[in-house]
Amino acid sequence: MNQSKPPISDQQLLSALLEIGEFLGSGSEFEDSLRAILRVLSDRLRMNRGTMSLLQEGGDRQEVAIDIAYGLSQDEIDRGRYKVGEGITGRVVASGKPVIVPRISSEPLFLDRTGSRSTSEKTHTSFICVPIPLKAKVVGTLSADCPYTDDVTLQANVRFLSIVAAMVAQNVASRQRAQEQWATLLDENQRLQSQLKDRHRPTNILGNSRPMQEVGDLVGMVAPSDATVLLRGESGTGKELVADALHYHSLRAPKPFVKVHIAALPESLVESELFGHEKGA
Questions:
Q1: What is the 3-state secondary structure (H, E, C) of 55-103?
Q2: Looking at the whole model, is its pTM more than 0.90?
Q3: Which of 9, 78, 108, 281 has the most CB atoms around it within 10 Å of its CB?
Q4: Lowest model confidence (mean pLDDT) among 34-38, 56-60, 234-238
């Protein structure tokens, strides 16, 4: 017969809290720090399957999804998604209040979307979920399984997990700000690239005559290919504009467009400048 493990002491709780604080202040990537924190909860305090779920807002849709977890596979993490107000996790986000499920198997609101628990496990496992507060808003939840136990111990676990949630809240906010800034930079980059392409559109080359229209059609046809293009014409007729248009509408557009004034190169260097040369040759 298996003997139940002794209860977690205050000293163990304090030691775990100090270790968690060290992880958060270590300067490591937030994801790595949080995984280490969830590992401490599991190894030191018997709080297993620890997860951090974050509120994801897009238009009219609000969803809570597992962001980081310890003890879950990637498939199980991907399945952990809830509408606000749905299941235990969704209700905690909606209400901003922690929830204790003393016995998972007896709680119909516990949806077990991850599918990570066996039927036998559910009969002797409790689940606790607390909000991650940021000012007057709930940005996510912190949750974990723990062995079925008395209400006093479960309440103590909730208080401890709530402290940890408050500690990680600022890190979550910093991470979200960084992600928003990165998204803004990407949008700005795409906008500038679009403007640059518009600037080099064949239609922006002055001239509406039939020959110029044919030039524009040829640029549109040749630019996506790997064909070598030779542009000929008198000085000032727009060869460089056409070359720009070819480059910025080609597959090489993200790479630099290098312009070389061949007339300024000695004849002996033209080949090596354009096509390179072997070292020592």
A1: EEEECCEEEEEEEEECCCCHHHHHHCEEECCCHHHHHHHHHCCCEEECC
A2: no
A3: 78
A4: 56-60
